[in-house]
Design a protein that fits this description.
GO terms for molecular function: isomerase activity. Pathway: Steroid metabolism; ergosterol biosynthesis. It comes from Apiotrichum porosum. The protein has five helices and ten strands. It is of the alpha+beta class. It has a six-stranded antiparallel β-sheet. Helix 2 packs across helix 3. The radius of gyration is 20 Å and the shape is globular. It starts with a helix and ends with a helix. Bound molecules: 2-acetamido-2-deoxy-beta-D-glucopyranose (2 copies). The site of one 2-acetamido-2-deoxy-beta-D-glucopyranose (NAG) has 5 residues, from helix 2.
């Protein structure tokens, strides 16, 4: 290799290393400031869930997932008139399967931005798997059914019933399961794009369900871009 070629290779690699360092610094900076970007609040969400469960109880619709989800979306819309949210859960084109960590369920995206997402997630027949180790805090508000979970080392299960919240902290991993007809309002806040590889891995390497991958990407990207254009990260 001539001296010229060696020096041009060296400058190419130093540029790459420089870009990587800037990207890393940007990620750490964003991680430290993403608190400022949150518009949703776990307590307020829990209040909306409680209100929809109370209404179901009052009207003899206990355990009716359609009734509860419908009322919950109405409550969310009232609580967050300015947030960009999808509230027509009867639109089948907005529902997708999700395979992640060996578990399978279906989801309806209510809100997705760079630092937050809010979805209806669950399964009509139940599921079981790995929660994933995430860079976001996850609040799993049970609407119907039951969820069980435990951390390695624990010999007894945690039990989450309608009205309770399973808060999975950043970095914590558990095995979890849900009984048939378990539905939940799942809220994650943190650095959402870093969660996506986990959300897509089973589709890429196991199910090879290209249509589901396409629709999941289409809906997620559409919502994230919609939020970015409104200045919501
Ligand atoms: C929701 O209901 C649960 C169970 O009844 C209760 O513990 C919790 O404090 C309520 N939270 C809100 C925000 O209303
Ligand atoms: C459950 O709620 C939905 C939506 O409100 C309603 O159409 C349906 O009849 C209810 N199911 C039962 C078994 O009451």
């Amino acid at each position: 290799m001539s001296a010229n070629a060696a020096s041009s290779a060296f400058s190419k690699w130093s540029i790459r290393a420089g870009i990587l360092a800037i990207f890393w610094a940007l990620c750490s900076y964003l991680q430290s400031i993403n608190d400022h970007f949150y518009v949703l609040d776990p307590e307020v969400l829990h209040g909306c869930v409680n209100a929809s469960l109370a209404r179901a109880e009052a009207q003899g619709q206990n355990g009716n997932a359609s009734f509860i989800v419908h009322n919950l979306l109405t409550e969310l819309d009232k609580a967050y008139p300015d947030a960009s949210m999808l509230t027509d859960y009867t639109d089948r084109s907005e529902w997708v399967f999700n395979n992640a960590g060996g578990a399978m369920g279906s989801m309806y995206i209510i809100h997705a931005s760079i630092t937050e997402y809010l979805i209806i997630f669950g399964s009509a027949i139940g599921t079981e798997g790995h929660t994933g180790r995430h860079t976001a805090d996850d609040y799993f508000h049970m609407l119907t059914g039951a969820e069980y979970a435990y951390e390695a080392g624990s010999l007894v299960r945690e039990e989450y019933l309608p009205g309770s919240v399973h808060h999975l902290e950043r970095g914590v991993v558990k095995q979890y399961s849900m009984v048939p007809e378990s539905w939940a309002l799942e809220y994650a806040r943190g650095w959402i794009p870093l969660m996506l590889p986990f959300g897509f891995a089973d589709m890429m390497f196991s199910t090879l369900d290209v249509q589901t991958m396409y629709h999941t990407s289409r809906i997620t990207a559409r919502e994230m871009i919609k939020n970015l254009l409104r200045g919501k990260f």
